[in-house]
Amino acid sequence: MLQGKAILWTPFSLFQNGDRWLRGAGSRTMAFFMILSLLLLVLVTGNVLLSYWKQKKLAKLLPPGPPPLPLLGNLTCFDRVSACKHYPKLHQKYGPVFTVWKMTKPIVVLCGYETVKDALVNHGEHFSERPPLPTADINGKGYALSSDSKSWRQIRRFMLSSLRNYGMGKKSMEDLVHEQLQKLFSAISEKKGKDFRPIHLLGFAIYSTMSSVIFGENLDYKDPKLYDLVTATRKYIHSINLPLYQICNAFPVLLKVPFIRNLVINVVDDVHLIVRTYADAHKASIDITSPRDLLDTWIMKLKEEESKPGAPFDEKSIAIHVGGLLAAGTDTTSSSLTFCLVMMSHVPDIQERVQREIDEVVGHDRVPGMKDRPQLPYTNAVIHECQRTLDLAPIALYHAATEDIQFRGFLIPKGTTIIPFLTSVLSDPAHWKNPEEFDPDNFLDDEGQFKPNPAFLPFSAGPRVCLGENLARMELFLMFSALLQKFAFRKPAGAKDLDLKYMQSNKMAFLVSSQLCAIPRSAPPFSA
Ligand code: HEM
């Protein structure tokens, strides 16, 4: 009798003889689906409970932090915009090492110069991994320089040496930036003192520089190839923030659905296709005794390594890593340069002081070169202060622990995602006189000489420090000083005063919408 009662309400009861429902093929199919649904429900609930249990267990070991919602985590704590909003308060409440949860995955956030330096430099090896990114791993190779630590190191070393040897003795990186400047001067002059959006022209200049370095092609601003390169690379850069990508990275199982998989692949495919097309043309015309650009050095490396089993250099890796270099090295620098000029338009006194220094040291007959930098301490301090104020990469790129590590009294398990909160370093009150204000004195000593500050880490630090730091700093110095030598930058008539707090929480919108008016400076208006 007891058994009979149970039979009434369990799906298995549907198989019982004598039940009229169960006669016929239709009811058998229905029973099958009901069992399947029940199994799925058990599986999902089991998984959910297991994740919850793991989350609770792990939370006891990890640094403190805001209590996560079961399974959902701290919903607004891991992307760039919410990080800037919430982390300063969490830093105050929980101290310089705290944990936030992206669903059931913990993310350890590091704040302040001492902590970030301790992790990325003193414990650099333990924090040098990158967490997996399923949308990028879809093609089997991850994103640029994401690979496991051995191949990442090999690729990074190789990329650094190819960038350093750029031009192989023919044309230096500095010559190349000077070449770009001529195009930029004419493009700005064509604006004839009318307001324009600097992000576009400066973007063309930086993309064209990268195209020369990587593909050996100095593209004209009106060349459709430059337009395609910019569009494809930006599509690639922004893909990471697309809801589709976020959802697929949280639930990688979705990438098994062919339709979704294709959507994800299509976004990065354009930039990979451009790289592959250039690579094919390079292969047909390469002279191994005289490499022309970074792509030639990749192709030569590929040939050299193809017989070595497990070497990270193969056909696929060219598109991924070179595409990644384009993404990492273009909008970062052009946004920084845009901010430098827009900032100058809001602080005319500082702009004039920079121009006076350039006029005195360089004059007007030649553009400034790298050799002038030590004699231009104020200009150098202003560029540094612009980068500090802009704080372009507030949470850098995600790091991950390479092994279980004891850090500042907490156990951080292998694989845990780590965020170095660079904003807290660039505004650490222990290291900056006026962290909230734009003040070039942050980089000047009492004699007005340039004074480096160890907490200046817009490029991060340690083994994963920005690979293009030297190139970016060179581009910023050469372009900023030459542009200020040639033009005076004014904000458009009626433009509001710059609100740094607003700018910091709406960086991209601010940079894209900012306008400038450039007035040619034919002769130095200040006497030396
Ligand atoms: C002002 C311009 C730039 C800024 C502010 C910047 C900032 C950064 C930051 C914060 C990181 C993350 C470091 C970390 O994970 O701790 C990074 C990584 C990287 N950057 Fe830059 N970057 C700039 C320009 C460039 C340029 C010009 C290139 C290439 C020529 C480049 C290539 C890379 C690469 C390849 C990585 C990944 C390094 C690795 O994982 O080993 N960046 N950058």
Automatic annotation (TrEMBL):
<dbReference type="GO" id="GO:0019373">
    <property type="term" value="P:epoxygenase P450 pathway"/>
</dbReference>
<protein>
    <recommendedName>
        <fullName>Cytochrome P450</fullName>
    </recommendedName>
</protein>
<dbReference type="InterPro" id="IPR036396">
    <property type="entry name" value="Cyt_P450_sf"/>
</dbReference>
<keyword id="KW-0472">Membrane</keyword>
<dbReference type="GO" id="GO:0008392">
    <property type="term" value="F:arachidonate epoxygenase activity"/>
</dbReference>
<dbReference type="InterPro" id="IPR050182">
    <property type="entry name" value="Cytochrome_P450_fam2"/>
</dbReference>
<dbReference type="GO" id="GO:0006805">
    <property type="term" value="P:xenobiotic metabolic process"/>
</dbReference>
<dbReference type="Pfam" id="PF00067">
    <property type="entry name" value="p450"/>
</dbReference>
<keyword id="KW-0349">Heme</keyword>
<dbReference type="InterPro" id="IPR001128">
    <property type="entry name" value="Cyt_P450"/>
</dbReference>
<keyword id="KW-0560">Oxidoreductase</keyword>
<dbReference type="InterPro" id="IPR002401">
    <property type="entry name" value="Cyt_P450_E_grp-I"/>
</dbReference>
<dbReference type="GO" id="GO:0020037">
    <property type="term" value="F:heme binding"/>
</dbReference>
<keyword id="KW-0812">Transmembrane</keyword>
<dbReference type="InterPro" id="IPR017972">
    <property type="entry name" value="Cyt_P450_CS"/>
</dbReference>
<keyword id="KW-0503">Monooxygenase</keyword>
<keyword id="KW-0479">Metal-binding</keyword>
<dbReference type="GO" id="GO:0005737">
    <property type="term" value="C:cytoplasm"/>
</dbReference>
<keyword id="KW-0408">Iron</keyword>
<feature type="binding site" description="axial binding residue">
    <location>
        <position position="466"/>
    </location>
    <ligand>
        <name>heme</name>
    </ligand>
</feature>
<dbReference type="GO" id="GO:0005506">
    <property type="term" value="F:iron ion binding"/>
</dbReference>
<feature type="transmembrane region" description="Helical">
    <location>
        <begin position="30"/>
        <end position="53"/>
    </location>
</feature>
<comment type="similarity">
    <text>Belongs to the cytochrome P450 family.</text>
</comment>
<keyword id="KW-1133">Transmembrane helix</keyword>
<dbReference type="GO" id="GO:0016712">
    <property type="term" value="F:oxidoreductase activity, acting on paired donors, with incorporation or reduction of molecular oxygen, reduced flavin or flavoprotein as one donor, and incorporation of one atom of oxygen"/>
</dbReference>
<dbReference type="GO" id="GO:0016020">
    <property type="term" value="C:membrane"/>
</dbReference>
